[in-house]
Amino acid sequence: QVQLVESGGGLVQTGGSLRLSCAVSGEDFSSWSMGWFRQALGKEREFVSSVTWHEGTTAYADSVKGRFAISRDNAKRTIYLQMNDLERADTAAYYCAAAPRYRGRYIPPKSADDFDYWGRGTQVTVSS
Description:
Number of strands: 11
Shape: globular
């Protein structure tokens, strides 16, 4: 059974940084695309970033482009989201997601419907 466990969330001031981690267990995910989504209170879940299996191609939401960076370490079975220059609008629960149907592909998915496995989320709160 595939499990995704996020960590690294917390409270940070505007302009600060956090690095989220997502540990993957249960299956070999090295050929899957992986992604991060977020959901603010009272809002729908939205795409943040995704990465292909070989880390050759990444995708970002316009709102985080230039500030966030996704990466993966297949040997450590972990993906990361480095978040810099955080803004209050980044406050949300952040979810890691896995897209096994995108095994071996070179274009990362962006739609939540493309992801089959989800973590339980980690809260990021940005204060002024």
